[in-house]
Amino acid sequence: MGAGKKVKNVTKSTKGKVKEATGKAVGNESLEAKGRGEQALGDAKQTLQKAKDTLKH
Q: What is the pTM of this model?
């Protein structure tokens, strides 16, 4: 996996975790849901990139 893409995907997942935790802490369900969505997107992109890398070898 390209280092730049890996960092970008991990960052997206981490930002999602922070948003979800913040949403829970302040009782903001919308922010919490956005955080879960960002985490899922980042994780999916990581999985897709790993699959691409596996197929290349």
A: 0.78
What is the C-alpha separation between 57 and 51, in angstroms, rounded?
10
Tens of pLDDT along 9-57?
Answer: 889 999 999 999 999 999 999 999 999 999 999 999 999 988 888 888 6
Identity (one letter) of the amino acid at 23? G
Give 1-57 as a DSSP string. --HHHHHHHHHHHHHHHHHHHHHHHHT-HHHHHHHHHHHHHHHHHHHHHHHHHHHH-
* CA nearest to 34, candidates 23, 46, 26: 23
